[in-house]
Amino acid sequence: MALNYAFANRPGLVIPSGLTWVGIETYGVSLPDDNLRALEARLTPAQGVMLMPKAFINFSAPGEIDDAHLAAAAHAQAEYAVRDPRVCGRSCGVWSGTPTATTWPGRPISSIPSAARSFR
User: Fold this and answer.
1) Is the model's pTM score more than 0.90?
2) CA–CA dist 23, 42 (Å, integer)
3) For 1-53, how does the pLDDT look when each residue is reduced to its tens digit (9 = 90+)?
4) Based on C-alpha coordinates, what's the Rg of the chain?
5) What is the dihedral of CA 40, 6, 27, 33, to 10 degrees?
6) What burial class does residue 79 get, using C-beta atoms within 10 Å of its C-beta: 0-12 exposed, 13-18 middle, 19+ buried?
7) Cα angle at 89 between 19 and 69, to 5 degrees?
8) Domain extent listing, the chain
């Protein structure tokens, strides 16, 4: 189960007890924060959290972050992940480069080599 960051702290959210882990988008946030804490409070002791930091650049967005900023954010979240016993891993939110909308000219992960190295 993967959650959009805005839904992780939603009142009434029920996490099925049969799930091993729940993924949460962590684009552009410093961890831990209220959304992550709220999600972790809803989990059973056997469940974990998979962090999903941003690993793509929207090259058409004015002021969009660059490769170095993505790499720094990925590194900071990796450092946090090893300190939080509920975090069972990370899965980068990668835009593959296959067009899903004509207005979003993303590029493959090879266009952000520093960030890509942060996920190895």
Assistant:
1) no
2) 13
3) 666 666 777 888 888 999 999 988 888 788 888 889 989 999 999 999 999 88
4) 15
5) -40
6) exposed
7) 130
8) 2-10+20-118
